[in-house]
Design brief:
The radius of gyration is 20 Å and the shape is globular. It is built from eight helices and eight strands, in the order βββαβαααβαβαββαα. The protein is an alpha/beta fold. It has two domains: 150 residues, Rossmann fold, CATH 3.40.50.300; 56 residues. The strands form two sheets. Strands 4-5-6-3-7-8 form a six-stranded mixed beta sheet, with helices on both faces. The structure holds adenosine-5'-triphosphate.
């Protein structure tokens, strides 16, 4: 069991205590801008002043963050992959023979898979994926989803948290759903996905309601802007 705490006083996130079991597959959903990436960063120990996490974490950022002036081979060498293991790692993500390519020579989907290979290189106990399917065409997104599914099946003890806007990604990859909402943001839902299409549809309705409540709360907290008449009255 992995335990994480977000302390009080965080500018975006409410205090929370999170428990993640080995092999948990969690999809993290919530309205845009609510703090999903911030929570992943927090879990990865990337926020200022945070200690290094005590477990091995692979983090697939929204951008690939590979060094553009290094080949894929060298990018993987930099995180400790032995030269004779590079090909097999690239092969795991469907990039056989691309070791000599530079990141900018790859399509978005391929670069994301190369970044995924770099995540796997550390043999993560926790894999963090930040919107892995964003900006991919539906065919490429389905392909990447199938690849991630295969990698998860191959590493049953690894836990995963995947940020997404689509509950259908959760249906394909996750056994558990977190929903972040409110300001400061807290987990408004933490539960199993449900085994049947009807249960998933029911969860989708619940999450939509939570999203609407959250948006209303955020709107109510925003400072009111003065319209022209009100502004006149202030002069
Ligand atoms: N330390 C901080 N202090 C103040 N604001 C912050 C801090 N860290 C993040 N934010 C702000 O919090 C908001 C939440 O950002 P975040 O990217 O985590 O949301 P998100 O839910 O991942 O959004 P999206 O779904 O659009 O990717 C952003 O407006 C960001 O600028």
């Amino acid at each position: 069991m992995l335990e994480f705490a977000v302390p009080g006083g965080h500018p975006v996130l409410a205090p929370m205590s999170l428990r993640i079991a080995q092999g948990d597959r969690i999809c993290l959903l919530g309205p845009s801008g609510i703090g999903k990436t911030t929570l992943l960063n927090r879990l990865a120990g990337l926020e200022p002043g945070q200690p290094r996490p005590a477990l091995r974490i692979g983090y697939l950022f929204q951008e690939h963050r590979l060094l553009p002036w290094r080949t894929l081979h060298d990018n993987l060498r930099l995180v400790g992959v032995r030269s004779d293991q590079v090909s097999s790692l690239l092969s795991q993500v469907g990039l056989d023979g691309y070791g000599a390519h530079f990141p900018d020579q790859l399509s978005l989907g391929m670069a994301r898979r190369a970044a995924l290979a770099r995540c796997l290189a550390v043999r993560p106990e926790l894999l963090l994926l930040d919107e892995p399917f964003a900006s991919l065409d539906p065919h490429r997104a389905t392909e990447l989803q199938a690849l991630i599914r295969k990698l998860l099946d191959r590493t049953p003890h690894m836990a995963m948290i995947c940020v997404t806007h689509e509950l259908r990604d959760a249906a394909a990859l996750a056994n558990r759903v977190w929903y972040l909402a409110g300001r400061p943001a807290h987990l408004r839902h933490d539960g199993n996905l449900g085994d049947t299409p009807a249960a998933v549809a029911d969860l989708a309705r619940q999450l939509e309601t939570l999203g609407q409540e959250s948006s209303a709360q955020v709107r109510a907290q925003q400072p009111r802007t003065l319209g022209p008449e009100a502004a006149d009255g202030q002069r």
